[in-house]
Amino acid sequence: xxxxxxxxxxxxxxxxxxxxxxxxSLVGMSITxxxxxVSLFGDNTILTIVLFIASITYLLAFFSVKRFDxxxxxxxxxxxxxxxxxxxxFSGGVSLTGPLWIFIVAPVSVYVLGLRHxxxxxxxxxxxxxxxxxxxxxxxxxxxxxxxxxxxxxxxFLTMSFLSALxxxxxxxxxxxxxxxxxxxxxxxxxDPLTKLANRRNAAAILEQEKSRLQRNNEPLSxxxxxxxxxxxxxxxxxxxxxxMVLTELSALFKEQVRQQDCVARWGGEEFLIILPQTxxxxxxxxxxxxxxxxxxxxxxxxxxxxxxxxxxxxxxLAEDQTIDELINNADKCLYQAKTLGxxxxxxx
Length: 349
Ligand SMILES: Nc1nc2c(ncn2[C@@H]2O[C@H](COP(=O)(O)OP(=O)(O)OP(=O)(O)O)[C@@H](O)[C@H]2O)c(=O)[nH]1
Prior knowledge:
This protein is an alpha+beta fold. The chain has helices spanning 2-40, 45-67, 70-91, 105-113, 115-134, 147-190, 200-216, 231-257, 281-297, 324-340, and strands at 221-228, 263-266, 271-277, 300-302, 305-307, 311-317, 346-347. It folds into two domains: 2-187, no CATH class; 200-347, 2-Layer Sandwich (Alpha-Beta Plaits). The protein is elongated and about 105 Å long.
């Protein structure tokens, strides 16, 4: 169950990430294309070429989202963005406005790479930006920024990175709690609130699942339909709370009597269904008798009372070409027989 939720969580998160990468690639492609076209009319040929290469890279990232692993497009988007930013800071872009673009790196990095990897990559990115800015002109000629500008650029980039990380962290927390809440609601929809056993809907689903699994392997499947005898009298004598206590304690007792792979479900008010995979009706009779006898000997302590109850059990084994409804109807008929023959007994198919 946990593995299933984790898988679902991962696939939903991946789908969301894929959508953001596609969108970012499209926007990135359009902006760099537009800037490349504008740059065509200027005199900076290298900038024009770089912008067109970036535009093509985003286009590739856009198409690779659907075709390849999402990490390929994430790598393309992130590192081509980094390279473009390094070039803009190095060259100064148009009228030394190139560094203004580096702020988009922070939110995109933490979202696409995740919080931890995003922050590691952002630290490396900032180190390289600092090297470019403070590179001595006599080594390599590059755009010259004043010290005040450089310092403010780094501080505002750090602030932006911190805010992006904070936002990503809260987003992830909200996402995880929403998933946990939905898991809890799903769990509630499958369980009987009083006994915490599988409810009727859940039991029906398990039966269908077991039916196809066992029939594929040619293995038997049996069910026990258990009904408390004269339960109305228990309620009348000890009140509804006393009745509830009996149902809860017997549920635990049933679970103790069966194997891990079996399923005990609350089928109706005082009716329980026990699903026994890989069990023939003969084997199910032995289990049913064991359960009947343990209930007969069991004492439920309620306030100052000691409550004793008995149960009747109908057994049915799934026949070839039989539906689950027919299987249950058959068990119900056997249960009816057990009741009419005097209760506190097991009636086989
Ligand atoms: N306390 C409690 N009682 C319940 C619950 N669900 C059903 N019941 C009671 O179970 C009783 C079932 O009564 P009947 O259907 O007449 O059956 P019975 O008295 O067990 O008699 P037989 O089945 O013929 O042996 C009713 O009094 C219901 O109110 C529950 O969740 N808690």
